[in-house]
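User: Is it possible to get a 3D structure for a protein together with its bound compound? The compound here is zinc ion. I've pasted both below.
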Amino acid sequence: MAKLIFKYGVMNSGKTTTLLMITRNYEDNKKTVLIGKPMIDTKCGDSLQSRLNNNTFIRKCDFIIDNDFDFNKLVTGKKIDVIMIDEAHFLNKSQVKKIANLVHEKNIPVICFGLKVDFRGEPFEGSSYLFALANRVEEIGVKAICSCGSIANMNLLSVNKKNIFDGEQVVIDNDSKVEYTPVCLNCYLNKKSEAQLENKKND
Ligand SMILES: [Zn+2]
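Assistant: Yes, that's possible. Here is the predicted structure of the complex:
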């Protein structure tokens, strides 16, 4: 039976790179792969981009998931060996359920890649439901390292070099002012306390 797999990691943990590597392995073996991402991710338009050792890899998505995306239509009449979904944290509950049904009913494996937690320390809806429904959940093998040397498990957002801890969940880094840094929980909480002290001083 096909499986729904969720591979999660922090920013810069090589999620898209891993997706593209797995895709290549399938395609080298003459398998058909469809790659998609949620519409909410406006970074790089309708493509995926990964960076490794100063090289940039770009791959056009085969589909973009909007609110009433029809997964059955996507696969009907085609022989698809695997579906890859990047930025899967941006999926909503209903989209994750549709994907789980697709895996089950059409027997097509789906591998989702995404973040577990947003910059506020809150879970993403898509990731929560993937954690709930996936046959297998695994952390991306490449570990992003915090500046203190620990393994990073949180995503720190800065806008114009100022660390931000609240606001809207979706802040896309397609602007040089917006930066995400992988950090460990200790450093995340220290920086959050610093920001709160700073805000109090300014009040
Ligand atoms: Zn740290």
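The domain at 4-202 is CATH 3.40.50.300 (Rossmann fold). The two ends are 58 Å apart (CA to CA).
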